[in-house]
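> @MW can you paste both from yesterday?
MW: sure, first one:
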Amino acid sequence: MARSSATFVCQACGAVHNKWSGKCDACGGWNTITEESAAAPLGSNAGPRRKGRAFAFEDLKTDEAEPARRATGIGEFDRVCGGGLVPGSAVLVGGDPGVGKSTLILQALAQYARAGGAAVYISGEEAMAQVRLRASRMGLSEAPVALGSATCVEDILTTLDRAKTPGIVAVDSIQTLWTGALEAAPGTIAQVRTSSFDLVRYAKSSGAALILVGHVTKDGQIAGPKAVEHLVDAVLYFEGERGHQFRILRAVKNRFGPTDEIGVFEMTGRGLAEVANPSALFLGDRDSASPGTAVFAGIEGTRPLLVEVQALVADAGYGTPRRAVVGWDGGRLAMILAVLDSRGGVNLSARDVYLNVAGGLKVGEPAADLAAAAALVSSFAGVPLPRDTVYFGEISLTGDVRTSPQAELRLKEAAKLGFSSAVVPQDTHGAGLKLNPVKDVGDLIAFAGAAAGRTKKD
């Protein structure tokens, strides 16, 4: 038999407490601790442990070939997964509500089914009539996708066991699932973990590729994706700003492919459209005639990506200057401002500084330091930088510019999009563009001053 026990679990981080309190000591969240009733199995503390069974060790050698991946037909989705879904793998797709997770998964399953694969879509949030209406708007009604609506894990597993094992199973979403083995309410940490574990175990044993959809609710009470990241093989986050039509699928964990890989989509009236050349899309409407803009040649995963960095330096309207950053780390902006002041003589301490990465993209690469510094110097001086130049390089606290990896790939992407020169760290090599090596921020400021001189002559 099982003994009933009550625990208090933080719904934000999953920490277990002996009693209720208003604040979680683990994550610092307020009013996130709820009481959960669970069945404690006998044998943990209620009796002697059974004797274990010995197992044999093996070496690392194998003659097994890598399993063939199941491509969905959505190129950007397959790219982020590492070339397609691995049989028996579990993939978690997380993101904010309304960003387009269900739309993306439905399109992927429809493409896979049209190519002859067996796809199952189980909806726990929407009725089947709602899913059919969405499929009709996107022109996917004729795709042979098996559609179901259920929230009980036992019902889902029984239904899947009775039919032929599908190639891909998608469950949308894990917050709505519940299992009869627990008395906790659906959406709690215990229910999310247990339900996800049962589904992942089915995928491992049957060979079906499992896709779990998870999101954080609008009031921020349930951290669904974070609670099960360790259970799955790949974690993909679907990002996007509501003010932009672009959506970015980013891999943060992948046991079968590279991490930090991205796929770019554009939200349209008929669903999500793939963006094969995101650099051209992010730079399509840029106005290089204005001061304070610089093009950063970055790398996202294995893909080179060019994006515009915009800076605005203005007189402070109040006593304390303001710093605002969108799409970049505010800590790195503070460091760049300090380096420009201390090592380059560009004092921005009494000015308002605004920095933005165009297109809604979030850049976390240190190589963006040089582009951000160039945009700041350009805005401070009031003169535009050369239109046909890209920038990349990491700036240290000493003011030196350090080399960045995969420079040739960055330069090749810039040449393909029509750029003719690049401001790069020293000892950078590449063909197709005129290189302007800089040793420190002083050389960068000198380059910006020379560009200003050429602009005045023109």
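MW: second:
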Amino acid sequence: MLLAIPAEGAVSIPAVLLVLAAILAGAKLFGELAEKIGQPAVLGELIAGVILGPSILGFVDPSLPIIHILAEIGVVILLFQIGLETDVRKLLSVGGTAFMVAVVGVALPFALGYLIGNALGFGHLETLVVAAALTATSVGITARVLSDLGRLDDVESRVVLGAAVIDDIVGLVILAVVAKLVAGGELTPVGVSITTLTAFGFVAVALLVGRFTVPPVFGMLRSVSSEQTLAMMGLVTAFLIAVLADSVGSAMIIGAFTAGLIFAPSEHAHPIELGVVRLGHFFVPIFFVWVGASVDVRSFAEPRVLLVGALLIAAAIIGKVAAGYAPWWFKGRKLVIGIGMVPRGEVGLIFAQTGLTAGVLTVGDFSALTMMVIVTTFIAPPLLKRLLGPGTKPSPKGDDADRPGSLVSEA
């Protein structure tokens, strides 16, 4: 039975604490179990949400406003953290190869998703959300697997991580466009162009302004305060930039990601990241459990959900693997690149949850999308391990920023 928390009026603090205790305990337990079998913790957190949600144990009601708010804060923190771990300069070092993989890795899955949506009779907005969800690639999951294998220095790894970061940026722009349409915007070439230019323009202007303002301001702040204060002010900056992005017609998660990109090349990135990671241990699992709780496992027994899920899984895998073969001039292991691009992870879940929250996706179609995210995230790590084998582990005393190809540092 769902724990009773008033949706309006007075909030029962003990009931809220019970729900949070269930969420955090479940996320930690299942996250560690997932890691013990060689899978990313996010899968365990997602499964914890499914088990705790209305369709099984009923401990967590995803419709509760307070849980929704905490989950949205978790998304903002997650995107800020991903931005902090992204080195744009090293992204440029893999140049055209990564760019080609990224472009095909977005365009082909999107086209396949759009065709599937039309063939199954989805509404126009529903088709766009489903197609957009297929474009994602999880930088965090792929980077973690490559790091664990000691393969971050491989040229294939640099291409995968570079393309995955580009995918994230392009995917977030697509999400901003889709979110605007969901909110009632018109699907016109002019409207889409304005939203796209707004998103890219915001990132470009924010990075330019941040390059000149962050070093002196945070340098002065660091000289008169502790690292804890520095981390908190970094998070404050991320929140403000997220709100600014929303106010100019972009998306909050683009603002949060951009804030991370601003701080990433600075000397202040490390203390800020430490503080953000600690805070993320509380908020980010709430998001993944919330997403899992929104899944109705009973819908997995419906033939339509299984059909949609199977088609999306096929499109998700084919689209990304084909992208690995797109740069015809590249002489390395293209299958490694393609498999490395497959996991959708947290980014795919953000797309799916956006569609469900806006009322564009049905519960069944959301469950099918979640099935796609789970399968693509589950199969990529063991396939990469099989294809690559063990490499040379980086020295723990080394500087992450000096490692070739280290686009995403170990948290």
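> thanks! Residues 83 and 260 are 4 Å apart (CA to CA).
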